[in-house]
Write a structure and sequence with these properties.
Chains A, B: This is Amidase. The structure is a homodimer. Chain A is α+β, with helices and mostly antiparallel strands and about 425 residues long. Chain A is about 35% helix and about 25% strand. In chain A, the strands form four sheets. In chain A, strands 3, 4, 5, 6, 7, 8, 16, 17 and 18 form a nine-stranded mixed sheet that branches. In chain A, helix 3 crosses helix 12. The radius of gyration of chain A is 23 Å and the shape is elongated. Chains A and B meet through strand 10, helix 8, strand 12, strand 13 and strand 14 of A and strand 10, helix 8, strand 12, strand 13 and strand 14 of B. One N-(aminocarbonyl)-beta-alanine (URP) sits at the interface of chains B and A.
Chain lengths: ~425, ~425
C-alpha cells in the first residue's frame, strides 16, 4: 500500500479530501507522468532481479527467472489512468505484481518456471481512443499499424507511435504473443461496481466479462441563425443528438444494458448559431453478444428514422419536425463477451477461499468493464480477481479500496500465480 | 459591393464555392483580423473627411460635419462575424454606411447636421458571450465593468478589456450615449430569415424585434465507469442534458417560439466515463416578453423535476431513473421586445417605396435577431432596414444576398439618413 501511494506522485490528480492520499490521478497514457511511472516500474523490477522487455506497443514485461525455461506466468494490469481517475484502477494490479516479486525474493522462493509482471499500455483508451489497445495488438486482434496511428482525443496532433517514441518506450520486440508468450495471465483489479460492497464479500472470482462496442456518431444538420430561422426551416444537430442519446438509453435499458455518451463535440459552437454538426461517442455494453447485436441494429434503424423526422417513442411529441438531417456511424471498438479460463478461475477461487478463510466471502462475478485480461484470454489461460470499490465508484478521483482489501487482493494474486506455476 | 468583398480579405472564412467571393468569414471580435478591418474603417472614413472617435468599448464613430453642430444621424452596424459566418451579417450595414459617406462626398452634399457611421464592437457575442454588448454599454443597459471583464468563450484566458488594449482599440472616450449622443440610428441588415425571399419582396421595414434571453445551464451528476455502474446507480449528466434540450424545444414550440443549444461542454470527456458535469447554453426568443417569462418559468420548473427523476412528457418512458442530479441556471443576457421609433420606421418605409418604386415590394417585419439598434433605440430614434437572405440562411459561410439587393438596401439607408437629417 505504501509503494502504491508513493507512485501516485507520478500524475497526481484532483484533491477530494485533506488526507495525504486523498487525491485522484491524472496519468494519461504516454504522457510525461506515465513515463515517470514506467521508469519507476522498470527500475524497480530490475532491482528485484527481473529481465525487462519493452515491445512495439510500449508494453513492459518484467520476468523473474524460474528453475526451468518456459513461458512465464504473469500478473498484469496497467499504470495509465483516466483524466479524472483514481488511485486503484489498473495501478493496484501492477503494484500487487511488484509486491509479489518482492515477497518471492524476501522468502527466497524459487518458482518452477519464470513468473512476471506486465504493464499494458493505454488500457483506459482515454487518451488514444481504443481501450486495451496494446494487449489487443499483443493478442493479434488489433493491427499494430492501426494502433500506432491512433490520434490523441481532442487535439489529434500526436499519435500513439509518436508519443511512444517521444517518451522512449517504442521497444524493439514485436508486440505479439508469439514474441512474448505467456503461460497464464492473472489480473487483480478493483470491481469498479457496487456488488461486493453490497454483499459484504471480499473477493470476486471473475468468470466472464461483458461484450462492448464503441461507436462514434456524427449528426449533420445545417448551421443557421438561432433567432431568425423558423421552426420548419431548422436542421438542429444538437436537438436531434438529444433525441438520439435519450433513445440509445431507452433501447439499452430495454435489455437491462447500458449505453453512455462520454464525449461530444458541437460545431461551430456559438450561442446564437444552430449547430450544423455534432459528433458523440456511444459506449454500449451487454453480457451477451446477441443482445449487443440487437441493440446496435435497433439503434441504427431508429437513429435514421429520427433523423428523417419520424417520431420514435414520442420523443418528438410536442416538438416541431424541421428539416431532415443525416447520421453517420463509425465503429471504434467491438469486443465479444469473454469466458475466462476454467482452470485459472478455479485457481483464483481456491486462492480466495484460502486467503479469506471462508467460502461465503468469495463470489463468482461478471466484469462490467473491459480489461487487458479479455485479450490475453484469447492467447493464454487467464482469469481475474476483484476487490470491493467504495460506493461502487470508479473513473472518479474519489475511487477507493481499503488497504485491507488491497492486501487481500494482492495475496490472492500471489497465491494464484504460485498455484499456476506448480500446476 | 466591390469594397465590401475587398474588405473580406480581413478574416476570410471557409470556402463553399469556386468563385472569388464564395467564402464565408471568420472575423471574431477583437482578433487580429478584426483589428485589420477596424484599421481599414478608420483610415477610410478619415480619408472621406470624417472625424473618428473610439470609446472605451472599442466602438468607432466616424462623423462627417454638417452645416450646423448637433448630434449626428448615424448609420451603423458591426464588422465582427460568427466563427463560421458570412460576408453580409453586420458587414453590409457598415460598408453601406461608408458608401453613404462616399456618395455624399461625390455629390458634394452638405447635410444640415453631422452624419456618421458607427462600428459596434462584438455584436455577435460569439467570442465574448454577450451579444450587442458594446451598444448595450453605450445605451447604459450593461455596466462597463461587466463588459470589460467578459471572458473569451472556451479557453477563457483573455477578457474584452485585455483584447481591446492588445489591438489598440481601448479608447479614451467614455462608452456612453452621453459622450457620443446620436440624433438617430439607422441600421441596414440582411434579414437572416426566409420571409422576404418567400414573398418576393425587396425591403423589410423593421417595426419590432423579438425579446431574447441567454442562459447557461449546468448539470451536475456523478462521474463513474460506463461499464460497471448499474442503471440505478447512475447520475449521467449527459443523459439528463439530452432530456433538458429536448424538453426546452417542446416548451418553446408550444408558444411557436425557439430555444436553441449552440454550445455544450462535457466533463471529464472520456468515452468510458459517465459525464459528471455538462454545461450548455440556451438561447430562447419570443415576440412578447410575457411569453418568454412563461417559457423561462416552465423550463426552470420542469428541468428541476427532470433532474430529480420525475418523468415529464414521457421523456423518461422506457428509460431507467438512476440517481438524482442537480441543475443550476445563470442568465447571461435578457433583452425585452423592441418597438422601433415610429418616425424612423415611417422614414424607412417611405425611402424603401421610393427606391423600389412600389409599395408591394416592401413589408413591415419583426426582427428575429437582436441588433445594436435594439440598444440605440433606448436612447435615440432608431429603425432598421432588411434585405433578403438567400434560403433564409445566416450564421453560415454560405450566407448570401445578391449585389442588387445590397445596393437597394444601401440606397434605402442613404435616403433614410438624409430624410432624417432634413426632418
Ligand atoms: N477497467 C477499466 O476501467 N478499463 C477501461 C476499459 C473499459 O472501459 O471497460
Ligand atoms: N444579427 C445578428 O446575427 N446578431 C447577433 C445577435 C443575435 O443573436 O440575434
Amino acid at each position: 500500500n505504501d509503494t502504491l501511494h508513493d507512485t501516485c506522485k507520478f500524475g497526481t490528480g484532483q484533491r477530494w479530501g485533506s488526507g495525504q492520499t486523498e487525491t485522484g490521478m491524472c496519468r494519461l497514457s504516454l504522457t510525461d507522468s506515465d513515463k515517470e511511472a514506467r521508469d519507476w516500474f522498470v527500475q524497480k523490477t530490475k532491482s528485484l532481479g527481473c529481465e525487462v522487455t519493452v515491445d512495439a506497443m510500449g508494453n513492459i514485461f518484467a520476468v523473474r527467472p524460474g528453475r526451468r525455461e518456459a513461458p512465464p506466468t504473469f500478473a498484469g494490469s496497467h499504470l495509465d489512468t483516466q483524466p479524472r481517475g483514481g488511485r486503484y484502477d489498473g495501478i493496484l494490479g501492477v503494484l500487487s505484481g511488484v509486491e509479489m516479486l518482492q515477497v518471492l525474493n524476501d522468502h527466497a522462493i524459487q518458482t518452477e518456471f519464470p513468473v512476471g509482471v506486465v504493464n499494458w499500455t493505454n488500457e483506459e483508451g482515454a487518451r488514444f481512443p481504443i481501450i486495451m489497445v496494446a494487449s489487443g495488438v499483443w493478442s493479434g486482434r488489433i493491427p499494430l499499424e492501426r494502433a500506432h496511428q491512433l490520434q490523441e482525443v481532442g487535439s489529434g496532433k500526436v499519435t500513439m507511435k509518436s508519443e511512444l517514441e517521444r517518451i522512449g518506450y517504442l521497444g524493439d520486440t514485436p508486440a505479439s504473443h508469439e514474441s512474448t508468450p505467456m503461460a497464464a495471465h492473472f489480473e487483480l483489479h478493483i470491481e469498479q461496481g457496487p456488488i461486493l460492497e453490497a454483499t459484504g464479500q471480499k473477493v470476486g472470482v471473475v468468470t466472464t466479462a461483458q461484450a462492448y462496442r464503441w461507436f462514434k456518431v456524427e449528426v449533420q444538420g445545417q448551421e443557421a441563425h438561432t433567432g431568425t430561422t423558423p421552426l420548419n426551416n431548422r436542421a438542429d444537430a444538437m436537438l436531434l443528438t438529444s433525441y438520439l442519446i435519450a433513445h440509445s438509453h431507452r433501447l439499452a435499458t430495454t435489455h437491462n444494458c447500458v449505453a453512455t455518451t462520454g464525449t461530444l463535440e458541437i460545431s461551430p459552437g456559438s450561442v446564437n448559431t444552430i449547430p450544423g454538426c455534432v459528433s458523440f461517442t456511444l459506449d454500449v455494453r451487454a453480457p451477451a453478444d446477441e443482445t449487443l447485436d440487437k441493440i446496435e441494429s435497433d439503434m441504427k434503424r431508429d437513429f435514421a428514422a429520427l433523423a428523417a423526422g419520424e417520431d420514435i417513442g414520442g420523443l418528438r411529441t410536442g416538438g416541431t419536425r424541421g428539416k431532415p438531417l443525416t447520421v453517420a456511424w463509425q465503429t471504434d471498438a467491438n469486443t465479444a463477451a469473454t469466458r475466462f479460463h476454467p482452470e485459472c478461475v478455479d485457481i483464483v477461487r481456491a486462492s480466495a477461499v484460502s486467503v479469506t478463510g471462508s467460502d461465503s466471502l468469495v463470489r463468482d462475478m461478471t466484469s462490467g468493464a473491459g480489461h487487458d485480461s479479455v485479450y490475453t484470454n484469447l492467447q493464454c489461460p487467464t482469469s481475474m480477481i476483484f476487490v470491493p470499490s467504495k460506493d461502487g465508484i470508479s473513473h472518479n478521483p474519489v475511487e477507493y479500496t481499503s488497504p485491507e482489501d488491497c492486501a487481500i487482493g494482492a495475496e490472492v494474486l500471489l497465491q494464484s500465480v504460485i498455484r499456476y506455476d506448480r500446476l
